[in-house]
Amino acid sequence: MGQLVYAAKVTHIPRLIMSEQPGPLHGCRRDATDGLLEVGRQITEAGADTVVILDTHWLSNAAYHINGAAQFDGVFTSSEFPTQLSELPYYYQGNPALAFAMAQRASAAGVKTIAHQKSHLGLEYGTLVPLHFMQLDKGIRVISVSGWCAFATIDESRRVGAAFRQAIEASDSRVALIASGSLSHRIHDNQDVLERPYEISDEFNRQCDLRTLELWQAGRWAEFTAMLPSYAKACTGEGWMHDTAMLLGALGWANYKAHADLVIPYFVASGTGQVIAQLPVEPVSAELHQLATAEATP
Fold it and tell me: Is-above-0.90 flag for pTM?
């Protein structure tokens, strides 16, 4: 039987790529690049053979989508930040069997989810940047999930995440589940963004982010999941924080009790709130699985 062996929420800011390159920004985000390297070490130590990344840079307007290609091979340039993230080569093996099983389970739970094996469906940088710095063994397989269904509810993402956990446990894979996205995500206005890379755009957002991490570290997930829909909207959470909702759906949602471990402390990037946090995986009973995949009571 399969097993969810690792879970984390990670950053994917393009400045990480610039931080490793020669020039005036060399080493500017060494904390975060080292943090992702540590996440890669922890994934390896946990014995994962597959990494599933919930990517908030893969926007879908209808249904949830999973890239279940057998392999990923290409060169990526960001249309959003072409001066920061350009010509990044990548090659990873996929896990089609698990990808299609995840889609089937989520659809059976009442949320339309489609897996694809299209050779020209590329990866987004919410997947590529973390993988680049995790430096995983090439034998570890990759699945990328659309982490931002623009017109879905947080509750739908919770149910999708819970269904993913069921599919993982019914498989023969040992899986690391990674939510790739920021906390608050109000980037500075255009006239300020290049000059204020390390300043928050709104102090309200910083205070909400810090309170969120206090709740995570204290294991107060019932309180956090109750505030998540409002927090995601009020603080412009990246992808409306659907990646976080899917991650917590897989971990048990309000019934999850573990204390998050900050791999690196909270930091600010171009106005947004960022973190790398490891969330210990706990067993989820059949009863909780059933509760997690059911529609929430209004």
Answer: yes
